[in-house]
Write a structure and sequence with these properties.
Keywords: Membrane, Transmembrane, Transmembrane helix. The chain crosses the membrane at residues 21-39, 71-91, 123-144, 150-173, 185-206, 226-248. One of its GO terms (molecular function) is ABC-type transporter activity. Pfam families: ABC2_membrane_2. It is built from 11 helices and no strands. It has 253 residues and is mainly α. The chain has one domain. The protein is elongated, with a radius of gyration of 20 Å. The chain has helices at 2-17, 20-53, 64-87, 92-97, 99-104, 110-144, 149-176, 180-197, 201-206, 214-219, 227-249. Helix 2 crosses helix 3, helix 3 runs antiparallel to helix 8 and helix 6 (110-144) runs antiparallel to helix 11 (227-249).
């Protein structure tokens, strides 16, 4: 346990001192800040363009829900892509650079190595998204004068289950594939498969596929039961980490 804590501390310090502290938080906070503003002024932007195109565009007055939907859409699409791309080299990069050999010669097991990687990156992801959600809520309240907290918290919480599952899959792929680009490509392929599966009702109801569109459905007030998607998504994250430990244990350093 002490070696796990020491390596986890090293991972967290690396996150704070390197580019990792800027990329994912920068992306999330950018969309958290711009989402409510874009939602508020989209009708004016469309009306400004309409005279040049000859089109007549009628857009209903924006509400807080439009700002929340912007946040949910950016989480599901752009932030998911960012998680896959940023963490695709979490294990393979250290193995290829030789730093994994250095830490594993100390009393650190490969299970602790992979586990600490997942916990450190997961803490970064959860902290970043919670701060982003708080920023979205505050700016939505400032711009629209109304910002109920519960639907935003529910949509963000469901996405975090999805995000931590995707992180587990990416850690697994990074343990199996030597190239970060290869792991990222496979991760994007997995995301596409889940997105395609979201058009099949049984998959949406009983598998992690139901987490793909859940944040948007919650905000639109049409969300169904999410017990099975949450359970299976959490189970898939755990299975992915167990698979990553197994795969990494069999790799030569």
């Amino acid at each position: 346990m002490s070696s796990f804590r020491a390596f986890l501390g090293k991972e967290l310090r690396e996150i704070v001192r390197t580019w990792r502290i800027w990329v994912l938080p920068g992306i999330v906070l950018f969309f958290a800040v711009t989402g409510p503003v874009i939602a508020r002024f989209t009708p004016q932007l469309l009306q400004a363009v309409a005279p040049d195109t000859g089109l007549v565009i009628q857009v209903p007055d924006p509400t807080f829900r439009d700002a929340y939907l912007q946040w949910a859409k950016n989480l599901v699409q752009i932030v998911t892509f960012a998680v896959i791309l940023v963490f695709a080299g979490a294990v393979s990069s250290e193995r290829r650079s030789g730093t994994a050999v250095l830490v594993l010669t100390k009393p650190l097991s490969r299970t602790a190595f992979v586990g600490a990687k997942y916990v450190a990156q997961g803490l970064l992801l959860v902290t970043t998204v919670v701060v982003g959600a708080a920023t979205t809520w505050a700016l939505t309240l400032a711009v629209f004068g109304e910002a109920p907290l519960l639907p935003l918290a529910a949509a963000t919480g469901v996405w975090l289950v999805w995000g931590l599952m995707v992180l587990g899959i990416v850690i697994l792929l990074s343990s199996v594939v030597d190239s970060p680009a290869g792991a990222a490509g496979l991760g994007l392929g997995v995301f596409v498969l889940f997105s395609i599966g979201s058009i099949w009702t049984p998959a949406v109801r009983y598998s992690p596929t139901g987490l793909v569109g859940a944040p948007t459905d919650i905000l639109l007030g049409r969300g169904g039961p999410l017990l099975w998607p949450v359970i299976t998504g959490t189970a898939l994250a755990a299975i992915s980490i167990a698979g990553a430990v197994t795969a990494f244990s069999r790799r030569e350093l």
